[in-house]
# Entry
Amino acid sequence: MERNFETVMIEQCAPVLAGLKPAGLFRYETRDCADLAARVHRWNDQLGEKGLKVRVLKGCAQTHRYLIYVYRESRLRQVLADEAVREFLQREGYALPEDASDCDSMLRQLSRRLCCEADFPHEIGVFLGYPLTDVVGFIENQGRNFTCCGCWKAYGNAKEAEKTFCKYKKCREIYSRLWENGRSVLQLTVAA
# Structure
């Protein structure tokens, strides 16, 4: 059953829209590829002035399932410019662009990995703003031995992770309630 694009975006990306997180990801199902392309284009036009971008990272015309990535380019640039993150991504096989702020190159590589590799690219966590310690911990422990679990599996400071999980959960609850009461996505998006 197809769900409303905007509803799913609010449910899954409220912390991104609120400026609490650099990026979010959600799965969207539709049989109408042209409508999806038009929505992505329209949201880029509208949200661009607030510092956000929307991108299809993966799509399958047979299953009608698409992975939609919503991100604040300035925040993602900061994440991808971090030397430890760059070293990690290089070890994972990414070709680093000379310009550390080149998000497009890195997102194209992530998209190829999502589409073409048999194994899920767990390094996606850094593109979603998860702490590098937790992304590396997840990969090294194959998802086991975590200190706590919420929006992601944490391997570092459990108290800090729990605090962040609670903040994101509260944000989602507030944004969902405001959405249901008639606020638009644009009204709910904080400018960065």
Remarks:
- The first strand starts at residue 23 and ends at 29.
- The mean pLDDT is 95.
